[in-house]
Amino acid sequence: MNRDEILISIRERILAFATLRVSKAQAEDVTQEVLVVLHEKYARVTELTELVPLAFQVLRFKMLDAHRKSLRRGEYNQESVDDLPLADPGDNPMIQLDQKQRVDRLLAAIAQLGERCRELFKWKLEGNSFPEIQKLMGQASINTIYTWDLRCRKQLLGLMGGSWE
Description:
Blueprint: H1 3-21, H2 24-41, H3 48-73, H4 93-112, H5 115-125, H6 130-137, H7 142-159
């Protein structure tokens, strides 16, 4: 009996042993890993009496390694996603009302601001940077834009009642 025939017969034993302890898919994977180790690292071992105990020792190490890896990854006592309740995609009506009231207060406060502040906020919301806003407003100094931005935000906060909430 040559070495390949021995490995084929051992493969069935290894797979049967592994299937008793892990799932069928895992058992197939572990069996393949054991055969690769036997083929690559222990090519000199040709006797059946030496190869069988060696194969089962490698199998035990591989199964222990797979178990440690699943523990480390948090796969061991994992709940199925199908068993978890779905989140309600709609917002809570209370949250929706609160958000609508804040938006209404913000729009009313912005309407009370001066033209310069409204333009500044508009350009900021469009994604313009301070140097771009400086050019749009025709100002020589960027510090002027920073100052206007600070004053406009303070004024808006005051019109909102002193709080963004």
